[in-house]
């Protein structure tokens, strides 16, 4: 069953067009990544889906369970079951870890149990009473993901969740996202430049180059095809 469908998406900014016809189809329960180099248009694609203020949509359609997202006011998109973890981590600096999660839970009608967030990210349990402003980047990322998850989304969109994190933290974030998918059945669409992290989490990958989708591969294929990784991703 198709959850998210993006057809012929063209989008851009005042300064010019960035996406030139993106087609993506994501089924319920999948883990998918959108890979591409710096400036390829990954964030622009995600922001188009979640109805962010920018970019401007030029053409195409985006549907979630058949609902036209482009016709949907931004504030209603979260209520449809989309959870968004942006590039810049989103938490309240002066609230504790537990309070941050609590605030996110109380903002929706049907949240997941807050205690479950500490199971997906055990490290958060030890620092639950610490103010978010005093956390490491990795811990803030876990809080940011937990805040999106506690709202009980069907689809989580994560923009470079592993960026700038130490390797041990990257593994905890990977593990957390995988468990969210496996144990909660949440569909995942993540954007990454870190191909290793994308392969650790996602089963299928779209490769974006200069605003065009140039390939679609499974993790197995991407793992064995070094030329492909080199050509499109420079790794
Ligand atoms: N708010 C904006 N206004 C104007 N141009 C923008 C804006 N945001 C992004 N762009 C441009 O759009 C293009 C795609 O940017 P985007 O952020 O989508 O790439 P990305 O694949 O997410 O890159 P990165 O890996 O660096 O995060 C780039 O050329 C960028 O300069
Ligand atoms: Mg980006």
Question: Care to describe what's here?
Answer:
- Helix 4 packs across helix 6 and helix 6 (137-150) packs parallel to helix 7.
- The mean pLDDT is 94.
- 42% of the residues are buried.
- The chain has helices spanning 42-49, 74-77, 97-106, 114-120, 122-126, 137-150, 167-184, 195-201, 219-224, 226-233; strands at residues 2-13, 16-27, 31-35, 56-64, 67-68, 82-85, 155-159, 187-192, 204-209, 212-218.
- The strands form two sheets. A six-stranded mixed β-sheet has the order 6-7-8-3-9-10, with helices on both faces. A four-stranded antiparallel β-sheet has the order 2-1-4-5, with helices on one face.
- The protein has one domain (2-233): Rossmann fold, CATH 3.40.50.300.
- The protein has 235 residues and is α/β, with parallel strands linked by helices.
- The protein is built from ten helices and ten strands.
- A hairpin with a 2-residue loop joins strand 1 (2-13) and strand 2 (16-27).
- The structure holds adenosine-5'-triphosphate and magnesium ion (MG).
- Adenosine-5'-triphosphate binds at residues 13, 15, 18, 36, 38-44, 54, 193.
- Magnesium ion binds at residues 42-43, 87, 159.
Give average pLDDT, whole number: 94
Number of helices: 10
* CATH level-3 fold name: Rossmann fold
Largest sheet: 6 strands, mixed
Which ions and ligands are bound to the chains?
adenosine-5'-triphosphate, magnesium ion
Strand content: 25-35%
Which series of helices and strands comes N to C? EEEHEEHEHHHHEHEHEEHH
Number of strands: 10
* Alpha carbon gyration radius: 17 Å
- Named CATH architecture: 3-Layer(aba) Sandwich
| Level-1 CATH class name | Alpha Beta
Q: Strand pairing plus helix content: what structural class?
A: alpha/beta
End-to-end CA span: 33 Å
Helix content: 25-40%
The side-by-side strand order for the widest beta sheet comes to 6-7-8-3-9-10
- Globular, elongated, flat, extended or rod-shaped: what is the shape? globular
Model regions low in confidence, pLDDT < 50 over at least 5 residues: none
Query: What is the assigned CATH homologous superfamily?
Result: P-loop containing nucleotide triphosphate hydrolases
Overall number of domains:
1
